[in-house]
Amino acid sequence: MAAKKQIYRVRRSYNQWVNNQMLEDYALRFTAKASRRWSLGGVANTALGAISFLALEAIGAAITISYGYDNAVAAILVVGLLIFFAGLPICYYAAKYGVDIDLLTRGAGFGYIGSTATSLIYASFTFIFFALEAAIMAKALEMVLGLPLVYGYILSSVVVIPLVFYGITFISRFQRWTQPFWVILQLLPFVFILGNDASLISDWQTYSGSKQTVDGIDLLLFGAAASVMFALVAQIGEQVDFLRFLPEKTAANHLRWWSALILAGPGWVIIGCIKLLIG
User: Fold this and answer.
1) For a Cys staple, 57 with which of 231, 246, 269, 279, CB 3.0–4.6 Å?
2) The whole model's pTM is what?
3) Which pairs count as long-range contacts for 173-182, CB under 8 Å and 24+ apart, including other chains?
4) What is the DSSP letter of 247?
5) Do the Cβ atoms of 94 and 243 come closer than 8 Å?
């Protein structure tokens, strides 16, 4: 006679969590075709929402202040173009086969060690940017609400957890409703600034950085600004995390599929460069 199998409450709860597709969303590794059920526009919009971080403005401001307008703009445009073309094939194969940056690296022939190194670089990049965003938001909370920085860091770090708990399903819905407010708040400061003093545009274009000693582009300072910009190339890993949810390309959605891929994939750097210049 078979022994009676006892299922403990903890195990039953765990099995329910594992079986909940709303919690899973294929957050890691291969994305099954059956789960790629979101619309092209929905996935593209979610992927573009990932670059709403304020660190781009901070980086643009930092390299402009240090290296001057000419060197900063040249570095932003040149590196932005290189990032676009470097990211295009990565995004294409991620969207076509539904794989993340780790599996792409392994499939490209770099093996387990190569994919581990890629994951380490991507994770480090994500942690650094997350820390920068928390620092920016904590400072804003201190200036507006008087909240001490320590509590601001904790709040800015913890508040993101419930947003990502349900994967792309909830993130897509959240960004769809909040994106109009983000666009308005993104542009409002510049409407205010230019409305009060439009001459700031010419001042910006003639600004020489604290390290600039000659007029025009200085190759040494251009290289220094470009080296800061090149750190942004790892952002393509986050875009891939969303693009692998794109529906399969068919004859009917061919043009829309490519538009969504380019806009939300390597096209992130177009909006990113605008944000850098705004900074």
Assistant:
1) 279
2) 0.76
3) 175/45, 175/46, 175/49, 176/42, 176/45, 176/46, 179/45, 179/49, 182/49, 182/52
4) P
5) yes
Cα 243 from Cα 172, distance rounded (Å) = 12
Q: Under DSSP, is residue 122 helix (H, G, I), strand (E, B) or coil? A: helix
Per-residue confidence band for 82, with pLDDT thresholds at 50, 70 and 90: very high
**How far is it, in rounded angstroms, from Cα 52 to Cα 136?**
13
Tens-place pLDDT, residues 132-183: 888 888 998 999 998 899 999 999 888 888 777 777 777 778 888 888 888 8
Centre a 10 Å sphere on the Cβ of residue 171 and count the other Cβ atoms it contains. Answer: 18
Burial of 36 (0-12, 13-18, 19+ CB in 10 A): middle
> What was the pLDDT predicted at 27?
53
DSSP SS3 for 1: coil
Query: CA-to-CA distance for 240 and 86, rounded, in angstroms?
Result: 13
Encoded tokens for 32:
């099954």
Residue 191 confidence (pLDDT) above 90: no
Structure confidence by residue, pLDDT tens digits, 193-245: 888 877 777 777 777 877 777 777 888 888 888 998 888 888 887 788 788 87
Read off the tokens for 207.
């600004």
The radius of gyration computed from the CA coordinates of the chain, to the nearest angstrom, equals: 22
| DSSP for 192-229, written as a single string | HHHHH-TTHHHHHHT---TT--SSS--HHHHHHHHHHH
Whether 64 and 53 have beta carbons less than 8 Å apart is answered as no
Reading the block at residue 275, the tokens are 């944000």
